[in-house]
Amino acid sequence: MKVTRATFNDVMVPNYNPAKMVPVKGEGSRVWDQDGTEYVDFAGGIAVNCLGHCHPAMVNALTEQGNKLWHLSNVFTNEPAMRLAKKLTDATFAERVYFANSGAEANEAALKLARRWALDNHGAGKDQIVAFAKGFHGRTFFTVTVGGQPAYSEGFGPKPGGIEHVEYNDLAALEAQMSDKTCAVMMEPLQGEGGVISPDLEFVKGVRALCDKYNALLIFDEVQTGFGRTGSLYAYQQLGVTPDILASAKSLGGGFPIGAMLTTAAIAEHLKPGTHGSTYGGNPLACAVAEAVFDVVNTDEVLAGVKAREELFKTKLAEINERYGIFKDIRGKGLLIGAELSDKYEGKARDFLNAGADEGVMVLVAGPSVIRFTPSLIIPEADVLEGLARFEKAIAKLVG
Ligand SMILES: Cc1ncc(COP(=O)(O)O)c(C=O)c1O
């Protein structure tokens, strides 16, 4: 059956508006569409394809597990899930893992756990969740309401309650909002979708201190920052601040859907049998692939390589900026990089994305005025240079 981009409009719910071309094949950091046109991939499936497309370690893990056992449900446990959980707990502050299928589900579990922990330990009334403007935590109704972009949560009827927002990096505002009624603070340790915004170190330390003061749990949403993206397995490991609960997804599966919520044994106790669950959570195929991703990503070679690639990206983007003066800021950490357009091009990030695609390079946006780059963590230097050369061509065409 022949399908084209036009088919999408005939058969899909119109909540997405995908690009004109339809990709059919990927290898490393290159992608090909139905017409055979080749693209350099700086989007990485929105910070997911951390080892690029079709990495042999992932293909092997999927094939091997695919010939053994696909699915059991949580009525039974399985070896890949336990092995992956062991590796995650050995490598982080966490002692317990809950597996889900996406970032939103990992965050949903984190929020429900925090509420249950507070209820069990402190009784009803300690149910306030504080989160940050421009934060993004997923699209379930709870997570999207905790997210800091009201446009995403409005228009669906009554929202889950007990949720407050303050500005990111504003410790005084957070302090003014918190009290003994606060059950948890949820934050990204570097805001991705909101515009690639880093927290001040003092701010993150202050958030931790306020959580300790008011006996509230600190939840780090590392769905985008996690699994090597910022140059350490998780971003918290470079901040000197340890959360109580951490959500991971995206790069965790390198392209296979999986999410995980990590926490301590004492907090995990509060999700007793029957309190929460998912048919597919901890699926053997997903966990086998994630284990293979972990084994490659959690190495000095790959993590140090992320920092080297960050420098290359930032240097080259700065050079482009010297020639065209289109960015007012180039920022981010590791391979989660944002280039904010100067005032003249405010609101035009999508035009640059489209122009890039026309020249054979896939980039992302983060809000209306920031171009975002989240390539494979092992993207070859030659692909970085080629992709940025194509992007510069797109810029030249667009701004003259
Ligand atoms: C920080 C963060 N949290 C949660 C999510 C939601 O993840 P998913 O789309 O897998 O539900 C995203 C997705 O962009 C994200 O960037």
Automatic annotation (TrEMBL):
This protein's record includes keyword Amino-acid biosynthesis: yes
A GO CC term assigned to this protein in UniProt: cytoplasm
CDD domains according to UniProt: OAT_like (cd00610)
Enzyme class at the top of the EC tree: transferase
One annotated GO molecular function: N2-acetyl-L-ornithine:2-oxoglutarate 5-aminotransferase activity
Domain of life: Bacteria
Keyword Amino-acid biosynthesis annotated: yes
Cellular location(s): Cytoplasm
Residues noted as binding pyridoxal 5'-phosphate in the record, renumbered to the chain: G103, A104, F136, D221, E222, V223, Q224, T279
Cofactor binding description: Binds 1 pyridoxal phosphate per subunit.
Keywords: Amino-acid biosynthesis, Aminotransferase, Arginine biosynthesis, Cytoplasm, Pyridoxal phosphate, Transferase
Catalytic reactions of this protein: N(2)-acetyl-L-ornithine + 2-oxoglutarate = N-acetyl-L-glutamate 5-semialdehyde + L-glutamate
Signal sequence interval, chain numbering: none
Entry EC no(s): 2.6.1.11
Note: May also have succinyldiaminopimelate aminotransferase activity, thus carrying out the corresponding step in lysine biosynthesis.
Quaternary structure (record): Homodimer.
PANTHER family per the UniProt record, alphabetical: AMINOTRANSFERASE CLASS III, SUCCINYLORNITHINE TRANSAMINASE
Cited HAMAP family: ArgD_aminotrans_3 (MF_01107)
UniProt similarity note: Belongs to the class-III pyridoxal-phosphate-dependent aminotransferase family. ArgD subfamily.
Protein name according to UniProt: Acetylornithine aminotransferase
Organism: Pseudidiomarina terrestris
Lineage, opening ranks: Bacteria, Pseudomonadati, Pseudomonadota, Gammaproteobacteria, Alteromonadales
